[in-house]
Specification:
mainly alpha
Length: 158
């Protein structure tokens, strides 16, 4: 029997045969409190950020649904369709809407997810990273949208 086989036999197989806990069971037992605190922290972060994502989605929907400058009465075309800031305004408001809704859905998935030990290894951190990334992109796109709308307000000055 080699040294490796002897080590595996003594350390891993014999405790299971003798009714003692193996290393995974000991780890689960000793980190139970950390798992519950991590779950509470995820709930707090997800609740706060989902409120922000909902607000960004509401503002983004309002800017996407309304045409800046209105519509010409005689031709039913957009007033600022040819303005260079209009494309910036339209695209950034749509990006903000899509990413904020994605962020909301991902935060809801985190809130409703199970909280087992293995979920904290990859699944929940990836969801949190995706949700926060989408939230930050939507906030940035909303700011670009507002800057684009100020081009319309300040068109005579610029």
């Amino acid at each position: 029997m080699s040294v490796r086989e002897e080590f595996i036999t003594k350390r891993l197989i014999h405790p299971l045969q003798q009714g003692r806990q193996d290393c995974h069971e000991i780890f689960k037992e000793s980190h139970q409190e950390l798992t519950s605190k991590g779950g509470e922290w995820l709930n707090t972060i997800s609740n706060s950020c989902s409120v922000v994502a909902t607000l960004v989605a509401g503002v983004s929907f309002a800017t996407t649904a309304t045409a800046e400058g209105g519509i010409k009465e005689d031709s039913s075309k957009l007033t600022f369709k040819r303005h260079p800031g209009f494309l910036l305004y339209a695209v950034s408001s749509l990006i903000a809407l899509v990413f904020s809704v994605t962020s909301m859905v991902t935060f809801l998935a985190i809130l409703t997810a199970r909280r087992k030990m293995g979920d904290f290894e990859r699944r929940l951190p990836r969801k949190l990273f995706l949700a926060l990334t989408c939230l930050f992109i939507s906030i940035g796109a909303m700011l670009v949208c507002f800057c684009g709308s100020h081009f319309f307000l300040l068109k005579d000055v610029l």
